Amino acid sequence: MPAPLRPRPAPAPDLLPKIIMGVDPGTQIMGYALIEVRGQRVDVLCYDVINMKSLGSNHAVKLKRIFDRMLELIDEYLPDELAIEAPFFGVNVQSMLKLGRAQGVAIAAALSRQIPYVEYAPTKVKQSVTGSGSATKEQVAHMLRQTLKLPPIAEASTFLDATDALAVALCHHYMKGNNVTASGGKSWGKFLAENPERLGASTGKKKAPAKS
């Protein structure tokens, strides 16, 4: 009589794929990035910006654009967690208020899809990626190109907000998600798996994001 087959052990949690969305908030240009991590392996799915300079001075219109684009990205890539940079405390109070609203709208979009989030201070992000909390945007982009083997970026000045968002996502990976804020404990992907009738709300396709 053949010996009974032993059940195959489940993969270690660190080896399960996880998609992290990184966001660098802005009221004119907001950077975003999505990476997939499996253990120590990191694959960049996309990084780009939401350019709102053409939307004029109506802040409400810009906030809606952020919310709508965030939902598009979430439904396309199904991230498990959101990592977002905390606003830098500057002198201009009005600018700080607008930046805080932009960050809040991005977080609200994630929470509407039951995605947990965590904030990271700008100095923490720079420290984790470059080793220096006072690194410039250019230095962050240069280190990311080396670490993640990214191709040269022709329009680097435009993409510095995108690489900043990529740095936020990578910082969260380095932190192993230990600071994640619970929002129900489920990713949007898991929620869709358990609620297939909601699949109509998702784009259902993986495609290269268009610049916006």
Automatic annotation (TrEMBL):
Query: Any idea which residues are catalytic in this one?
Result: 24, 85, 161
**Entry cofactor note text?**
Binds 2 Mg(2+) ion per subunit.
EC code(s) of this entry: 3.1.21.10
Compartments annotated for it: namely:
Cytoplasm
Q: Where does Mg(2+) 1 bind?
A: 24, 161
Quick check: keyword Cell division in the entry?
no
Give the UniProt keywords, A-Z: Cytoplasm, DNA damage, DNA recombination, DNA repair, DNA-binding, Endonuclease, Hydrolase, Magnesium, Metal-binding, Nuclease
Q: InterPro entries from the entry?
A: RNaseH-like_sf, RNaseH_sf, X-over_junc_endoDNase_RuvC
Gene Ontology molecular-function annotations: hydrolase activity
Q: May I ask which residue range the UniProt record assigns to the signal sequence?
A: none
Q: Which CDD domains match?
A: RuvC
Q: Which reaction does it catalyse?
A: Endonucleolytic cleavage at a junction such as a reciprocal single-stranded crossover between two homologous DNA duplexes (Holliday junction)
Q: Where on this chain does Mg(2+) 2 bind? A: 85
| Main localization (coarse) | cytoplasm
**What cofactor does its activity depend on?**
Mg(2+)
Quaternary data: Homodimer which binds Holliday junction (HJ) DNA. The HJ becomes 2-fold symmetrical on binding to RuvC with unstacked arms; it has a different conformation from HJ DNA in complex with RuvA. In the full resolvosome a probable DNA-RuvA(4)-RuvB(12)-RuvC(2) complex forms which resolves the HJ.
**Per the similarity annotation, which family is this?**
Belongs to the RuvC family.
What this chain does, per the entry, is described as: The RuvA-RuvB-RuvC complex processes Holliday junction (HJ) DNA during genetic recombination and DNA repair. Endonuclease that resolves HJ intermediates. Cleaves cruciform DNA by making single-stranded nicks across the HJ at symmetrical positions within the homologous arms, yielding a 5'-phosphate and a 3'-hydroxyl group; requires a central core of homology in the junction. The consensus cleavage sequence is 5'-(A/T)TT(C/G)-3'. Cleavage occurs on the 3'-side of the TT dinucleotide at the point of strand exchange.
What is this protein's name?
Crossover junction endodeoxyribonuclease RuvC
Query: Which source organism?
Result: Hymenobacter negativus
Query: What's the source species' lineage?
Result: Bacteria, Pseudomonadati, Bacteroidota, Cytophagia, Cytophagales
